[in-house]
Design goal:
With 499 residues, the chain is of the alpha/beta class. Helices cover 39% and strands 22% of the residues. The protein contains 16 helices and 23 strands.
């Protein structure tokens, strides 16, 4: 019997009010594992009403006690790590080790949020003027929402929910309908940790639920992660409804390999960052840029056999390098991109299109594919493929290499591999990309820094996690205070100054 997944509203699982459902697959077998109910606007409104009723009491709870709930939640994440990772791997397709990393990176943001008593501190100036004290305070926004993608079902919901909740907000989460189980499990763990019912609500669904969130007058802020076209839509619609909005979109992450790079290290980095999680990462390296023909030759000599030797397997296989893609539709889309690359004239050095997993013939598998002699005018270079496909674009000079990521419409992440500190420093300063790795292939900052791309990879002024998350989920109130001291100055008709 197929499991039916529901919403999580007011501290418990609640069935959808509509008769609209979506299938949830196990990518490694291709079977339908569950059905998830899609939220109607009425379901979103119910979730918001619960959040609005619960939020004032949570905001009035002192920050240290809110931090204790977050501490308990982190303990529970560690306790249930294996269970969460297994569920995540089966529903998404990524292998167990990668699924644990997904949970761990979300857990680290929850750990950061434990510091909310310090992070929310305002500022104070005594004697800012004659008898005047000046101070500021950070206060929660109220009810906020997050719309998160399929590829990180634990990490990205926690990147958004943990800081928002720690700051005293109530949170509405709309996770991907392709991987809804782990977000529901996280909501239950929050309740077990002591979070009051109504502070975290999960509504599953499609565009109907998204549009209801964007239009709801009681939601003050919305965060989104997904494709750039939808990110731009969410940003525009949210702003049009008077909300604070942060949206993160697609990527085309380059890795520059200079002639002096440790080539074994560079190839290890490309294999892991290009093909891990079957390339379904917004920070995956999808373009390798060797500088000079001699560098390109050495790179390909080492890279080709490594791609050919990639071990594709079911999500639960402990020895697999990568598992299946999330759906048959997405696998076919990636195959279409590989076909397009061949048509465009790129050299398909390793072809993963015909991979079949013995015993899992109905699963959504692709082998690793590798293109060489890709050029910037090709669609496989310009567009995000989001699969186990790596393109090699040969650059003649360092200047040509830095120009590629700098001029691309996406600006999420970039990496350079070199032994030359001066070149690395110059690259980090000049490249027009939001996150830079130096001999680090996936430069995702740690939780106490902030994550965000530039250009069409990011919409909005503030990034995810780190100090920016506290700024995004709070509003600053500034108080100018003067107490009577027996001195009368009379009415003042000019603007106050410190002259």
């Amino acid at each position: 019997m197929t499991t039916e997944l529901t919403h999580f509203i007011g501290g418990k699982r609640v069935a959808a009010s509509s008769d609209c459902f979506g299938d949830v697959f196990w990518p490694m077998t291709g079977e339908v594992a569950a059905r998830v109910g899609f939220a109607a606007p009425a379901d979103v409104r119910t979730a918001v009403a619960n959040a609005k009723a619960a939020q004032p009491g949570w905001a009035a709870t002192n920050p240290q006690r809110r931090a204790r709930v977050m501490m308990k939640f982190v303990d529970l994440l560690n306790r249930d790590m294996e269970k969460l990772a297994d569920t995540l791997a089966r529903e998404h397709g990524k292998v167990i080790a990668d699924a644990k990393g997904d949970v761990q990176r979300g857990l680290e943001v929850a750990e950061f949020a434990i510091g909310v008593p310090h992070l929310m501190k305002g500022e104070y100036t005594e004697g800012a003027g004659p008898g005047i004290d000046l101070y500021s305070m950070r206060q929660p926004l109220g009810v906020v929402a997050g719309i998160t993608p399929f590829n990180f079902p634990a990490m990205i919901p926690l990147w958004k929910a943990a800081p928002a909740i720690a700051c005293g907000n109530a949170f509405i989460l709309k996770p991907s309908e392709r991987a809804p189980s782990v977000p529901l499990m996280l909501a239950e763990l929050f309740i077990e940790a002591g979070l009051p019912p109504g502070i975290l609500n999960v509504v599953n669904g499609d565009k109907v639920a998204v549009d209801a969130i964007l239009a709801d007058p009681d939601i003050s802020a919305v965060g989104f992660v997904g494709s750039s076209d939808i990110a731009q839509y969410v940003y525009a619609q949210g702003a049009a409804h008077g909300k604070r909005v942060q949206c993160f979109g697609g990527a085309k992450n380059h890795m520059i390999i200079l002639p002096d790079a440790d080539m074994d290290q560079a190839v290890d980095a490309l294999i892991g960052a290009g093909y891990g999680s079957a390339g379904e990462r917004c920070m995956a390296i999808s373009v390798a840029v060797p500088v000079g023909e001699e560098t390109a030759g050495r790179l390909m000599d080492k890279l080709v056999p490594r791609v050919e030797a990639l071990k594709v397997g079911p999500s639960t296989a402990l020895d697999a390098d990568l598992g299946p893609l999330v759906t048959a539709q997405h696998r076919n889309k990636v195959k279409d991109y590989i076909n397009l690359g061949v048509k465009e004239g790129a050299e398909l050095v390793v072809d993963g299109r015909d991979f079949r997993m013995q015993g899992y013939e109905n699963g959504f598998y692709l082998g690793g594919s590798l293109f060489d002699h890709v050029t910037p005018d090709m669609r496989i270079y310009r567009e995000e493929i989001f699969g186990p496909v790596l393109s090699v674009v040969r650059a003649k000079t360092y200047e040509d290499a830095i120009r590629l990521p700098s001029e691309h419409e996406y600006g999420n992440g970039v990496a350079i591999f070199t032994r030359d500190g001066d070149a690395a420093r110059d690259f980090a300063a000049k490249v027009n990309v939001g996150m830079v790795g130096i001999n680090v292939p996936i430069p995702v900052p740690l939780a106490y820094y902030t994550f965000g791309g530039w250009k069409r990879s990011g919409f909005g002024d503030l990034n995810q996690h780190g100090p920016d998350s506290i700024r995004f989920y709070t509003k600053t109130k500034t108080v100018t205070s003067r107490w009577p001291s027996g001195i009368r100055t009379g009415a003042e008709f000019s603007i106050p100054t410190m002259k």
